[in-house]
Design a protein that fits this description.
The complex is a heterodimer of chains A (about 170) and B (about 120). Chain A is globular, with a radius of gyration of 16 Å. Chain A contains six helices and five strands. With about 120 residues, chain B is α/β, with parallel strands linked by helices. A six-stranded mixed beta sheet of chain B has the order 1-2-3-4-5-6, with helices on one face. Chain B is globular. Classes of the chains: A alpha+beta (about 170), B alpha/beta (about 120).
Chain lengths: ~170, ~120
């Protein structure tokens, strides 16, 4: 990348009011560093309620990426937080196996269409569900994201190769 | 034997357990790297208390942020408290959240709904 490309990229980030943008491997260590940064940024925010929700959605989304990532060292992770007139958008992505994506897609479609009361009920049930298969939170993290988002979440799977896809999830707060 | 005194870190809460009569307190943030390793001793200590002679217990929970995998561990803690109650012991849980923190308030309500027979008071500060 030359300097003019870097400036173009910076301009694009500015135009989209991006607060945070990360591309590369997602690890627990990175999550803690970014969480710390976000926390400090939020201290100066005049809407503590929204800040707290942004923090919570960010944490669950990143933990989800870490857990479901096909390869812990995979450099395909992405994290973006951008502002717009209506609020903040948290967008996270990581490479997952194609098999996993089918199941995840179905689950997310169900959650997208669920109303607030149904989500809360699912959440309450999820609090005690065993963590055997779906990661340490057994699906509770996704529910937390969907529940806190101010509009339905959006997601996409980007083809990579026969075995893998990039999973990207966006939640508006 | 079951006493605990764990200092808070940026990502784990301070935990104290003393008694009898038992008093358990958790305060701060909770997003440990290894949830089972962090909460294991607390769950173990509660299991010992459940197995021991009857004593009252008061639990004070003042959490600022808790991730979903820590909620699972907290659920286990509530199960321990509920087992103590089932053995006829007086158990009181005080769930504190800061004013306007509806996330933590709702989580307190979620625990109330899951443990209807446990006395859980939700306090806003």
């Amino acid at each position: 990348m030359d300097i003019s490309q870097a400036v173009d990229m910076r301009n694009s980030l500015r135009a989209n009011r991006v607060i945070m943008a990360y591309n590369g491997a997602v690890s627990d260590e990175l999550m803690v560093t970014l969480a710390d940064l976000l926390k400090h940024r939020m201290l100066s925010n005049d809407d503590p309620r929204r800040s707290k929700v942004v923090f919570s959605v960010f944490m669950e989304a990143v933990q989800n990426l870490i857990w479901h990532g096909r390869d812990r060292e995979s450099p395909a992770g992405m994290i973006m937080i951008a502002e717009d007139d209506e609020g903040v958008c948290v967008i996270c992505g990581n490479r997952i196996s194609r098999t996993k994506s089918t199941e995840l897609g179905h689950r997310l479609e169900q959650l997208q269409n669920a109303d607030k009361d149904t989500l809360r009920q699912l959440y309450r049930e999820g609090m005690s569900r065993s963590a055997d298969h779906e990661g340490p939170g057994a699906g509770l993290g996704l529910l937390e994201i969907v529940r806190r988002a101010t509009s339905p979440i959006s997601f996409t799977f980007v083809d990579v190769d026969d075995d893998s896809v990039d999973f990207v999830l966006a939640a508006r707060i | 034997m079951s006493e605990l005194n764990i200092e808070a870190t940026e990502r784990t809460p301070a935990i104290t357990l003393s008694g009898p009569p038992w008093r358990l307190s958790l305060s701060g943030e909770s997003y440990p790297e290894d949830v089972s390793a962090f909460y294991g001793p607390v769950i173990l200590a509660l299991d010992e208390i459940v197995a021991s002679a009857a004593h009252a217990m008061r639990a004070e929970l003042s959490l600022v942020y808790i991730n979903s995998s820590s909620i699972k561990a907290l659920y286990r803690i509530f199960e321990g408290l509920d087992l103590c109650r089932q053995k006829g012991q007086r158990i009181e849980v005080c769930w504190r959240h800061t004013e306007d923190d509806d996330i933590m308030q709702e989580l307190g309500e979620d625990f109330q709904e899951r443990f209807p027979e446990l006395t859980i008071l939700i306090e806003s500060q």
